[in-house]
UniProtKB/TrEMBL annotation:
SMART domains: MgtE_N. InterPro entries: CBS_dom (IPR000644), CBS_dom_sf (IPR046342), Mg_transptr_MgtE_intracell_dom (IPR006668), MgtE_N_sf (IPR038076), MgtE_transporter (IPR006669), PRC_barrel-like_sf (IPR011033), SH3_actinomycetes (IPR058838). Residues 409-431 are annotated as: Disordered. Keywords: CBS domain. PANTHER family: MAGNESIUM TRANSPORTER MGTE (PTHR43773:SF1). SUPFAM superfamilies: CBS-domain pair, MgtE N-terminal domain-like, PRC-barrel domain. It comes from Saccharopolyspora gregorii. It comes from the Bacteria. Coiled coil: none annotated. Residues 286-353, 355-413 form the CBS domain. This is CBS domain-containing protein.
Length: 431
C-alpha cells in the first residue's frame, strides 16, 4: 500500500505501528509537535506510541518510514522505551491543539480548530502545514462549515495561549469515545492538568467514573479535588464500591466524611462497610456486588445475569447462591456455581442442583498473602468472602489482588522519559 506524505492528525490516532519486519509494536495515541516563533508551521517531532502494558513511549519521526491509511511503519533500529513525558517546548496535537479557539487573520472571525494536516517536506521532515477550522457562528445550534487554511492564516496557538485560555473538548471527546476506559485514563494522565480538567468536566458521570478507576492514585485524588464536592460525590456513586472505597481511604478524613455524606445512602452504605476493613485484607479487597441468586433460580436466569456486558469478567465467572436476602450481607451462603457448570447444565435446571459446596471461602480478615495463596491453590479468578455467621458479604477478584501486589505506580507504566540518555533502555526492533 502506498505511503502518504500528508495525513490529518485525527486519522493517525489509533493506527497500528509495525516494525520493519511486519511485527506489531503498538498503536499511535498522539502526535508531538514543537511550536516555533514568528508564525512558522510547527515541526512534527514524533509520535506517542502505546506499547503493551499501556506503556507510552516517544518515537521520533525520523524513525517513521511510511504512513499508510491503516498503519505506520518504522525503520530498523532501536527505540527508547522509557515512558513518554511531555517537554515544555512540545505540544500534543490531538490532546492540546484540537478544539483550540483561534482567530482567522484575514477576517478576524473566531473559529475552532478541528484537525491538523501533517505533511512531509522535501527534506523528509514533517510539519503541520494546514489546519481544518470551523468558524464560530454565534448562533445557537448552528455550526459553521469546515475550511482548511494555512498555519500562518490563523492566530491563537502560541504556547502561552494554549496554557491559559479555556478550550473546548468536542473533537478530543470524539476520539476518546472510541477508546476503552483504561486507554482514556492513559491519555488523560499524559495531558497537562488544565486540559485534563477540561476533559473530565465534559465527561458524563458514568464514563468519568470508569476512567477514574483506571487512573494512578495521585491523578484520582487530583481530579476528585478539582470537581467540587457535589460532582465528586456523583462520580463516586457511579464507581464500583471497592474502587470508591480505595479512593476515599486516601483522602483526608474530613474530605472522606463529607463526600460520604453527600452520596446517596444506598450508594454510600457498601462503601462504608468496605472502609471498615484494612485495605490489604479480603474485606478491603472485595467488591460487595457479586452475582447472587436464590436456590430456586434457574440456570437460564444465572446465565442471563452473567451475560451482562457491564459485569467485570472475573465477577462473571461465578454465581453465588444464598438464602434471602440476596443483597450483601446476604442470608445463609449455600455455595457457588462456576460458569463452566452453568454452560453444561440444562437451562431449566435449578442452580441449587449445580452447587459447588466444597470450595473454601475467605474470611474478611484474610491477609493479602493468604488471599493470594487461596487464588493460586484453587486456580480461581473470583472467590467468596463470608462473615462469622456464614453470610456472603462480598467477593474478591483476581484483578483486585493484582492491583495490590503490583508496585504503587504500576499504572504509570514505566520510568520517566529521557530520550537523549545513552543509558536509556532500547527496544531492538525489530521493535
Amino acid at each position: 500500500m502506498a505511503a502518504t506524505t500528508r495525513v490529518f492528525a485525527a486519522r493517525v490516532a489509533g493506527l497500528a505501528v509495525f516494525g520493519p519486519d511486519g511485527e506489531s509494536i503498538g498503536k499511535v495515541r498522539d502526535v508531538v509537535a514543537g511550536l516555533r516563533a514568528a508564525g512558522q508551521p510547527p515541526r512534527i517531532l514524533g509520535l506517542v506510541m502505546e506499547m503493551a502494558a499501556r506503556r507510552r513511549i516517544f518515537v521520533p519521526m525520523l524513525r517513521v518510514v511510511r504512513v499508510e491509511p491503516n498503519a505506520v511503519t518504522l525503520a530498523t533500529g532501536s527505540v527508547n522505551t522509557r515512558q513518554f513525558h511531555q517537554r515544555p517546548n512540545e505540544v500534543l496535537v490531538l490532546g492540546q491543539l484540537l478544539d483550540a479557539k483561534v482567530t482567522l487573520a484575514a477576517t478576524g472571525a473566531s473559529a475552532v480548530l478541528v484537525d491538523a494536516a501533517l505533511e512531509q517536506t522535501r527534506t523528509r521532515d514533517w510539519r503541520i502545514s494546514r489546519l481544518a477550522v470551523r468558524e464560530r457562528t454565534g448562533r445557537l445550534g448552528r455550526r459553521g462549515p469546515v475550511q482548511v487554511v494555512e498555519w500562518d492564516q490563523i492566530t491563537g496557538l502560541a504556547a502561552a495561549e494554549l496554557t491559559d485560555r479555556p478550550q473546548g473538548v468536542a473533537q478530543l471527546l470524539a476520539l476518546l469515545d472510541t477508546m476503552r476506559a483504561v486507554d482514556v485514563a492513559s491519555t488523560l494522565h499524559e495531558l497537562p492538568a488544565k486540559r485534563r480538567y477540561e476533559v473530565a468536566e465534559a465527561l458524563d458521570d458514568e464514563r468519568l467514573a470508569d476512567v477514574v478507576e483506571e487512573l494512578p492514585e495521585d491523578d484520582q485524588k487530583d481530579l476528585i479535588g478539582h470537581l467540587g464536592e457535589d460532582r465528586a460525590a456523583d462520580v463516586l456513586e457511579a464507581m464500583s464500591p471497592d474502587d470508591a472505597a480505595d479512593l476515599l481511604a486516601e483522602l483526608p478524613e474530613v474530605d472522606k466524611n463529607r463526600l460520604l455524606e453527600l452520596m446517596e445512602p444506598a450508594e454510600s452504605a457498601p462503601v462504608k462497610r468496605l472502609l471498615a476493613y484494612s485495605a490489604d485484607t479480603a474485606g478491603g479487597l472485595m467488591t460487595p456486588e457479586p452475582v447472587v441468586l436464590g436456590p430456586d433460580a434457574t440456570i437460564a436466569e444465572a446465565l442471563a445475569m452473567v451475560r451482562n456486558a457491564e459485569l467485570p469478567v472475573a465477577l462473571a465467572s461465578m454465581v453465588f447462591v444464598c438464602r434471602p436476602p440476596s443483597a450483601t450481607p446476604t442470608g445463609r451462603y449455600l455455595g457457588c456455581v462456576h460458569i463452566q457448570r452453568l454452560l453444561r447444565e440444562p437451562p431449566s435446571t435449578l442452580v441449587a442442583g449445580a452447587l459447588d459446596t466444597t470450595l473454601a471461602s475467605l474470611p474478611p480478615t484474610a491477609t493479602l498473602a493468604e488471599v493470594t495463596r487461596y487464588f493460586a491453590a484453587y486456580n480461581l479468578v473470583c472467590g467468596p468472602v463470608l462473615d462469622d455467621q456464614e453470610h456472603l458479604i462480598g467477593a474478591v477478584t483476581v484483578d483486585d489482588v493484582l492491583d495490590h501486589l503490583l508496585p504503587e505506580n504500576w499504572r504509570e507504566s514505566g520510568l520517566p522519559d529521557d530520550r537523549n540518555s545513552p543509558d536509556a533502555p532500547k527496544a531492538s526492533d525489530d521493535a
